[in-house]
Design goal:
The structure is a single chain. The protein contains twelve helices and 15 strands. The protein is α/β, with parallel strands linked by helices. Strand 9, helix 6 and strand 10 form a beta-alpha-beta unit.
Amino acid sequence: MQAWRVHRNGEPSEVMELEETDRPTPGEGQVLLEVRAANINFPDALLCRGQYQVRPPLPFTPGVEICGVTEDGRRVLATPALPEGGFAEYVVADEASLLPAPDALDDAEAAALHIGYQTGWFGLHRRAHLQAGETLLVHAAAGGVGSAAVQLGKAAGATVIGVVGGPEKARIARELGCDLVVDRRSEDIVAAVKEATGGRGADVVYDPVGGDAYAKSVKCIAFEGRVVVVGFASGSIPTPGLNHALVKNYSIAGLHWGLYNTKDPAAVRACHDELTKLAAQGVIKPLISERVPMADAARAVQRVADGTSTGRIVVLPSGGTR
């Protein structure tokens, strides 16, 4: 079978190599899956660079989430076990962790429903306790992680302010349903949020960016607001001023979705059931900006790494269109 392999750490476009390799063999409690669609996530770029919190042994295949088909014909979502990730024609995954792919979504959309939307749901509901009528500020609102949070925030009845970089991403954020879009390249985020909220600020901030995004967020956070730290796509990990959190009465909550897989797998399944219902109702639908063939995977991962992509780019190993 074909699989993308990384033999040394570096930029995805430089270190990902498409190779012929043996089809993986399932171990005890595992199943073999034919990959229909593999969604690209920012952690795939970090894995290539050797900067992710998990560092699989070299060589490895990136690709942390897929939609695939079992040998007995079930269409499922899976997170393949590294070092044999999803940018391959076949993967193995733990049977216990498989989730049924929603009928309302095609293969590419289903592959993109898993980690990003689970992260958004747990971040907004379990960590931030977002309430209807509150104001949600989402950074990188036109990206894969941010676009999921925008849709979930609207589904929860929140007023959503999306922060983006550039007019094209601003257009996409508006189409996603943002009530207000702020272009960080040409507008003052803090002033815009305060003006939109009558000086109160955002009740919940969803931050997958870190760096300057975090610094600006805590300048426009509401009384008893909650900042959900999801990641550091900017490459800069902020150092929170806890004295500032104290005097302004706001909370900082971390969200590492992967821990729920081991600490509370029942909650992951319950979340998937809720996401499946929302997808069936048409309330949420992953934004797929590109469906690329297997041969273009490395270039696509690089675009995600560079922050030039919007929504989700999905690799189709079989060359199909679903």
